[in-house]
Design goal:
The protein is α/β, with parallel strands linked by helices. It has helices at 24-33, 50-58, 75-84, 105-118, 163-176, 183-188, 209-228, and strands at 4-9, 18-19, 22-23, 40-45, 65-70, 92-97, 120-125, 131-137, 140-147, 154-162, 195-198. The chain has a single domain (4-123, 153-228), classed as Spore Coat Polysaccharide Biosynthesis Protein SpsA, Chain A (Alpha-Beta Complex), CATH 3.90.550. The longest helix is centred in the last third of the chain and has 20 residues, at 209-228. The protein starts with a strand and ends with a helix.
Length: 229
């Protein structure tokens, strides 16, 4: 494979919460820095955080190119800013939530392999709960359908795309005034099929206080596994 890059999206302050003494962001960066298939890592932060985050990331580079990029007012704008900072010769771009520090190397590589073969791939998991389609009106929520779980996935990250395809998707979204909730939704608008690589329930997105308790548990398990290997 040629040149691969990881853009860690998101300007949420949650990425700076400490997990065993290090910001969640750093734990996430370490996962991608451990891959010999990732040549460059771009971390998107708010403008006021550029300097101190840049200094913190210098200690994590291990010879890998890690840069900080100023984000925008939305996830979509933040990823677009990171794309603009990439070398156009980049083959694949992996966009990952900075607050998903428990992605494993095997899943990263499976997503890279699938995107290299097909052009577009995301990590996802099949929901374990029954999913209902509903309508909301006048304060009432009513069920309209039960959706078959075997036809559903919950999208995670990384989401990996050929560089040129992702550029086209963002250009089209900007032209049409479209705002998506993830990168795949932008690519899907181009009538491009996006593959799904099965992920793990451990690849949690830390967004609320209760998630930190689970994060501490997962990190202790990772550390114990590394000590035994």
């Amino acid at each position: 494979m040629g040149k691969g890059s990881a853009a860690l999206a998101g300007t949420s302050r949650k990425q700076f919460m400490l997990l065993e003494g290090s910001p969640i962001l750093i734990h996430t960066v370490r996962k991608f820095a451990a891959s010999d298939r990732i040549s460059e890592i771009l971390v998107v932060v708010r403008g006021e955080d550029l300097e101190w985050v840049g200094g913190m990331l210098e200690r994590e580079s291990s010879g890998r190119r890690i840069h900080v990029v100023e984000g925008g007012n939305s996830r979509q704008q933040s990823v677009e800013n990171a794309l603009a900072a990439l070398d156009p010769a980049t083959d694949l771009v992996a966009v990952h939530d900075a607050v998903r520090p428990f992605i494993d190397l095997e899943t990263i590589h499976k997503a890279l392999d699938e995107a290299a073969a097909t052009g577009a791939a995301i990590v996802g998991v099949v929901p374990v709960d029954t999913v209902k389609q509903v309508t909301r009106a006048t304060g009432h929520v009513r069920i309209r359908a039960t959706l078959p779980r075997d036809k559903l996935v919950l999208a995670q990250t990384p989401q990996v795309f050929r560089y040129d395809l992702l550029i086209r998707a963002f250009d089209a979204a900007r032209r049409d005034g479209f705002f998506g909730t993830d990168e795949a939704s932008l690519v899907e608008r181009l009538d491009v099929e996006v593959s799904v690589v099965m992920g793990s329930d451990r690849n949690i997105k830390i967004t609320k206080p209760g998630d930190m308790e689970l994060a501490h548990l997962f990190l202790h398990e990772e550390m114990a596994g590394e000590a035994q290997s």
